[in-house]
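Structure ticket #2291
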Amino acid sequence: MLDYIKTFPSAKINLFLKVLNKRNDGYHNIQSLLVKTDLSDVLEVEISNSFQIEIYGEFSNCVNVDDNIFIPIFSFFKKNFNLDRQLKIKLQKNIPVGAGLGGGSADGAEFIKAINKIFNLNLNKKELQKISLQFGSDLPFFFEEKPAIISMKGEEITVYNKNFNLDILIIKPSINLATKKVFENFQNNFSSLISSEKILSKSVIDISKEIDNDLTNSAIAIVPEISQILNELKYFKCLVAKMSGSGSSCFAIFDNLSQIDECENFFKQKYQNYFIKKTKIHN
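Resolution: structure written out below.
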């Protein structure tokens, strides 16, 4: 039995996001290509005499110690796998919250992996993904090593194997945006499912350029700053400028390091209270 695990939950971006329909449970079926970034939280999990959660870092004040994804996950495993020890959880929160970057889902998925290892449960990836789905539709993706097309509730996953290594700039206005609110504001302009073969035949750049994020207008109606960010990013000759997930983060892909530096400096000077991060996406 392991007593301690340290891991680095990665933020994701959605290269596109299609809203397919609304299910009977009130949630929506989607299709999206998810890619991990080099921006990550730091999660430490260890055996303890009592259940403890410590959260620190730039966005620690956005996470409630008494109401977060770790509590229901650990309750599930204690009940269903008769865990007889407690855990101490320490999280350095570097990924913005309410940003469309999947930070909470990444933390949850890494915590599930840690529980599986610490308590020698020997659950395989498919079993862990099935469990994780009850805590959020993004979680199953974070058990994959590669970028992936996810569809429906998030349980249908197709790995995207093309090689790429790209510089991106993430810009998040100083407003947290709840996914539920963005979907409630969505005007039901549903999209058709795109064949996986069609997506797999295209490069990351072509996919990002050609396939939209259906939630963009819904998010802009709540946070108009998103539109301004996207327009200003395009001024710097980036290859792509889009919103990630349900927002409020936007990202731009660059193939010129001097341009990304110039863009980063512009935003840091103009928007001193925004989250601005230069990072990478790669296969």
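Closing remark: Residues 11 and 19 are 21 Å apart (CA to CA).
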